[in-house]
Amino acid sequence: xENKEFHSGFVALIGRPNVGKSTLLNYIVxxxxxxxxxxxxxxxxxxxxxxxxxxxxxxxxxxxxxxKPRTKLGDFMxxxxxxxxxxxxxxxxxxxxxxxRGPGDDYIINHLKDVKxxxxxxxxxxxxxxxxxxxxxxxxxKDALPFKDIVPVSALQGNNINTLMNExxxxxxxxxxxxPSDQISDHPxxxxxxxMIREKVFQLTREEVPHSVAxxxxxxxxxxxxxxxxxxxxxxxxxxxxxxxxxxxxxxLKKIGQMARRDIEHLLGDHVYLQLWVxxxxxxxDKSAMLKDYGYRK
Length: 298
Ligand code: GDP
Ligand code: K
Ligand code: MG
Known about the structure:
Elements: E1 7-14, H1 21-29, H2 37-43, E2 47-52, E3 56-62, H3 72-87, E4 90-96, H4 103-112, E5 119-124, H5 134-139, E6 149-152, H6 161-171, H7 189-205, E7 214-222, E8 227-236, H8 239-246, H9 251-268, E9 271-280, H10 288-293
Parallel strand pairs: 1-3, 1-4, 4-5, 5-6, 8-9
Antiparallel strand pairs: 2-3, 7-8
Helix pairs in contact: 7-9
Bound molecules: guanosine-5'-diphosphate, potassium ion and magnesium ion (MG).
Guanosine-5'-diphosphate is lined by residues 15, 17-23, 124-125, 127-128, 154-156.
């Protein structure tokens, strides 16, 4: 068998609300949704999912600014969107076959005018229309941007998505696998959430609490579509460290929780309830068997 080259890159998913971006991503990524914090920081965008096969890895990112109205906030978002677009390798612009092109699309198209990377027009929900109608639907968009290709799909039924993925993979540069496949698990968020809490502990307590801190995320429960309840233990070696982390009247722990929650909400795009406890486990660092349990995998 020949040694195939590995293709990888970052792909932005753009489109008006309800055109089926999440459905498409879920279909593509399936169970393998992974959310990593380090890239979220460099792109200032939410990683929505990572698609990994033997010969490719595609990191899908959200571009929150594109559909926002023109406000001060919108301007800010716009700047981060544009800087994020500079880092991506391709754009999937998703429209719905059962909706007419609207002002939201004009806004997006306008933003994509200066984008140099290949843009694919993904016409979703083709299961809702007769094939005869497709040319008219596509006609509303096809000259608006120099699309690399126009791909009709049904994210709900999975129609033609393989075609889209194959094309996309070929378009992406030869590159590394950015994320190990084994970080993709039932709870891919777990490790990242622990890292975010740990980061706040270090930021806020400085050298008072050295590296003898482990974070144990004990539960992540999605209550409904938009709310996630997270419980975590902050594990230290000595009672004095516990005191520092809790702080006067619990103020330090409260601050750690607030800041970590903000980051986690940004990461997940959901409302988060974060409950933190501090536990003393003397000498946990020496007990190497416990390290993995406490999520300390450096
Ligand atoms: P998003 O706002 O762009 O992320 O859109 P969603 O993925 O949340 O989808 C919005 C609605 O469209 C949901 O009710 C989906 O079930 C539905 N939807 C998404 N893709 C398709 C499709 O291919 N066909 C049909 N019939 N409905 C779809
Ligand atoms: K939605
Ligand atoms: Mg969505």
